[in-house]
Design a protein that fits this description.
This protein is of the alpha/beta class. The protein has helices spanning 35-42, 65-70, 86-91, 99-108, 112-115, 135-149, 165-178, 191-194, 214-218, 223-233, and strands at residues 3-4, 10-12, 24-29, 54-55, 58-59, 72-75, 153-157, 183-187, 199-204, 207-212. A hairpin with a 2-residue loop joins β4 and β5. The structure holds adenosine-5'-triphosphate and magnesium ion. Adenosine-5'-triphosphate binds next to α1.
């Protein structure tokens, strides 16, 4: 499929992509290559022509938008937080979750230690008592939502960029468990995030220029291997 925002330049070019149920797709690529656009289209945030995107064999335009979104957990790139408690930022104002489950999701998203510095714990209101969150802390609060909501479809868009490597590793281990029987997309510019995927696509200027598993992609010349070499030589990313 192709896609443009309004009359602007084409953003997705000849994208032909299948994600098998229960599998994880990794999406890596250059800046502005259309990674977030793919996620936005799957959530029906923009209109597409009929018979271009199918979910479980059904044209996305025939799926009720609310039903569709109810089955997704989309951790967006901006990871917007509300000026309310940590708890409500994780349960998104849904009181039906048990506190234990919220605490468990906090542990899995590696936010537990941060919580000990908050005078009111999970009832801490962000922005009060001088409590502001760093970029990495905001990302981990957003990641906790994925563990709590436990949806069938999960999309992480650039969710680990501000998380340090050691913490990222812990979260990814927990994520592997969470994503076992789910259909998921991990969008990232870091090899260490997408390498856990069953299949990885490499995007450049709206086109899929490479696809395969991590092992396949590092074995051949191309942008993926360039990223790999660049990121493995970075002293902060020795663990790839
Ligand atoms: N709402 C929009 N209206 C018009 N153009 C847009 C819109 N959102 C994105 N674009 C353009 O579409 C292209 C792809 O954007 P997209 O956000 O999908 O890229 P990305 O790969 O996620 O980038 P990044 O690595 O910065 O997150 C870019 O050229 C961007 O400027
Ligand atoms: Mg993006």
């Amino acid at each position: 499929m192709n896609f443009s925002y309004g009359d602007n330049l084409r953003v997705l070019n000849d994208i032909n992509l299948t994600i098998k149920q229960g599998q994880t797709l990794g999406v890596i690529g250059t800046i502005g290559s259309g990674k977030t656009t793919i996620a936005n289209l799957l959530l029906k945030l923009y209109d597409v022509e009929d018979n271009k995107i199918f979910i479980g064999g059904t044209d996305i335009n025939k799926i009720n938008t609310k039903n569709l979104r109810d089955n997704f957990c989309y951790i967006t790139q901006e990871n917007f937080l509300f000026s309310t408690t940590i708890k409500e930022n994780i349960n998104l104002f849904d009181d039906s979750f048990e506190e234990d489950n919220i605490l468990e999701s906090i542990e899995k998203s590696a936010f537990k230690d941060d919580l000990t510095n908050m005078p009111d714990g999970i009832e801490q209101i962000i922005g009060e008592k001088g409590i502001t969150l760093s970029g990495g802390q905001k990302q981990r609060v957003a990641i906790a939502r994925a563990f709590l909501f436990n949806k069938n479809f999960v999309i992480f868009d650039d969710t680990f960029s501000a998380v340090d490597n050691k913490t990222e590793k812990i979260i990814l281990e927990n994520l592997k468990q969470l994503l076992k029987n789910k259909t998921a997309i991990i969008i990232s510019n870091r090899i260490s995030d997408v390498k856990i995927a069953d299949k990885i696509i490499v995007l450049d200027q709206g086109k899929i220029i490479q696809q395969g598993t991590h092992e396949e992609l590092i074995a051949c010349d191309g942008l993926y291997r360039d990223f790999y070499i660049e990121q493995s030589s970075n002293m902060y990313l020795k663990d790839i």
